[in-house]
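Sharing a chain and its predicted structure for anyone who wants a worked example. Both blocks are below, sequence first, tokens second.
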Amino acid sequence: MKIFNFKNLAAMSAFGLVALLGTSEMANAQHNRGNDQKHERKANKRLEKLDKERAKAERKRQDHWNRQDTHSGNDRSRGMGYYRGNANANTNRNGRYRVSRNGSYYYTDNRGAELLRQAVNEGYRQGFEAGRNDRNGRRRISYSNSNVYQSGNYGYQSYVDQNQYQYYFRQGFERGYQDGSNSRYQDDYNGDYEYGSNNGGKLNILGTILGQILNLRSY
């Protein structure tokens, strides 16, 4: 008659349970890795889609500028109020201006010129406030960390090209940030700063600095 060894049977059962648990954990780990890889693929696809959309928008913008460069005569630049490469494109005789930027010339009218001045001044005010807040809060001094600087759209109106508005807004923002974060100017300071001035509680960039940034000429 055979005698069962219950100790051996218990050991075998325990071993089988461990093996089963190990197999289950391995399956769970593989499942989790599969999910992570799946999410990663989805994220990569979204990034690729965004990159394609940005590239498409940039090509569209470049095509728009190229069309404006080839136009002449009574071209109104589709109501943008801002022209590149063609001094005759602006038929609005109520002021015609030429803007020089990075070796290229752009043309606009009174309203466009005023909006570009506004871009610089709004940038200066927003930059000054951001710089003052970072200084008082003992945060790292860096204008490029500001969301307002990165967007560059504060006060934007579609009469001028958005890219140009952003450029001049950021020019003002950088200078305003430097003044606002400068420890030489206390909170109760009410005189002129390095790049701007406080007139009756309203900040504006200095006229000489504004002229240097815009290099705006009537013609």
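Comments welcome. The CA atoms of residues 120 and 172 lie 4 Å apart.
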